[in-house]
Amino acid sequence: MDCAAAGKTPARPLALLLCLGLAPLLAACAQTANNFPAAPSLPVAGYAPQVPLYRLQVGDQLAVRLMLNPDLDEEAVVRPDGRISTTIAESTQAAGLTPEELAAALRAQYAAELQSPRLNIVVRSFAPTRVYVAGEVLAPGEFVTVGPTLTAVQAVARAGGLRPSGDPRHVFLIRRGPGDIPVVYAIDYNGAITGSHPQADVRLAPYDVLYIPRTGVYQTYAYFNQYVQQFLPVSWGFSYYVNPVVNNNTR
Questions:
Q1: SS3 content of the chain, % helix, strand, coil (to 5)
Q2: Alpha carbon distances (Å) from 96 to 23, 56, 206
Q3: Where are the alpha helices (DSSP H) in the chain?
Q4: What is the pTM of this model?
Q5: What are the pLDDT digits (tens) for 144-191?
Q6: CA-angle at 20, arms to 233 and 32, nearest 5°
C-alpha cells in the first residue's frame, strides 16, 4: 500500500492510520533482528562442540580396581561434597574429574603404600544428569535423564516443542566452561529439524541450558498489541453495499 497515496485520499483514513501505526513497528522489527541475540559473541556461528569427556558427579558409583592387588579392590560413591573415600585414600576429590584424572590422583596416593600401583576407575552407575530448556517452548524446565544426555532436538521435544512465537533460527546453548565460566554457543536447530544440517543436533552436556528466543515477528506483534492496538482500536471487518440492478423493463 502506498502511504502517500492513502494520505491524499480523504475516503481512506483507516489506511492512513495503518501506515502511521505500522511504521514504528517495522522499525522495531528491524532493530530487533539487527541486535539479536544480545548474548556473548558466539565462537562459531551455527555450531556447538560435541559433548566433552564425562566428568564424575555427585552420586556416581565407582569401582576402584588394582590389577596386581585385587584384594584392595573396592567400591566408592561420590559424596555430596564431591569426594570419595577408600581404604588407602581417605578423602580424594572426584566430582568434576574424568575417571582417568581420578585414577591418576589415586595412583599418587597409593604409591605411598604400594610399588607402581596399576589402578583404574570403572564407573558402575551414573547419577541422573540434568539439562534445562528455557524460552519459547510449551513446557520449559529441568529434564532428568539416566545414561546419555539428551540432544538439542530431543530436549526441545521433551519440553513440548516450540511455541509459535519461538525462533528456530537463533537457538543458543549456555554451557559451563573451564573455571565454571558460562560460554554461549549457537545451535542450528532449524537445520537439524529440517534435515539440511543433521550434525547440528549436538548432544548436551550435564547442566547445559538450551534457550529458544522469540521471533522478531512476534516481538513486532507484541509491540503492536501492547502499544498501538489497545489505544487505537481498529475494526478489521469490511462490509460491502451492492446497489440493486434496476431493470428498466420492470413495471
A1: 30, 20, 45
A2: 53, 5, 11
A3: 3-8, 13-35, 99-110, 152-158, 189-194, 216-223
A4: 0.56
A5: 988 778 999 999 999 999 999 999 988 989 998 777 788 889 889 999
A6: 95
